[in-house]
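S.,

Sequence below, as promised.
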Amino acid sequence: MFKRIVKILPAVFLATGTAWAAESPFIGEWKLDPSKTRMPDEMKVASKGGNTYAFDFGGGAETIVVDGSDQPGGYGGTLLSVKAEAPDTWIVERKKDGRLLLRATWKLSKDGNTLTDYFREFGSDGATFSMDYVYGRNGGGSGFAADWQSIKETMNSPFPFQVKAFQGDGLSFITPLEKKTQNVKFDGKDYPFEGPAAYQASTSSARRVDDRTLVITDKADGKVTDTETIGLSADLKTLTITARVPGSGRPSAMVFERK
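The prediction came back faster than expected:
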């Protein structure tokens, strides 16, 4: 849920693509620097009357009753439940095939203007991904109903990242924690994501801006989901991924240091 059009690659780069990939400065193992990373998020909660609410975490509205029961969600055949544990505390869970995918504990401030989200995502191997968000109320609404936009994000889990050569003249971007691999080649074509957690209809295409800058476009079911600019520092020790989601004015920026 770790909640944002590329042009055809110029022919001048294609002539030297294989040699470039073999010596690519992007290849290596990288470690996230949480202190320099920003991953802004937005979620919308709308009251539909009574105890019924519509939740939009970025993939469209899911309307359920806040009673703690598992109810059909609108995301990948999952079940969504929301329990009001206290007037200022909601527990949000998502499940699939009987397995708990995530649990989020929402705490509303006394003045109702901020919401703290203790977000935990659980892998099939027992690994836990942990992030804490603080959201500010944007616009109207009362209680938990609001357009919430994050003002602070704290990643508590290590987030390793690997880059390897892919089919000679391409690159693979691997996130072991998410069990996904993003493959790209610099020929303007879409290549599918790989891995047990990858959505089957997700693809990426790429172009090279210069020796230290790449632009990657991600799609799901043929629709652009985000555009990532991947840049290396002059000393090749810092890698920054800036992702922009269509319709969102706040890009995320993940900063990695070479291991």
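Residues 131 and 234 are 30 Å apart (CA to CA).

Coffee later?
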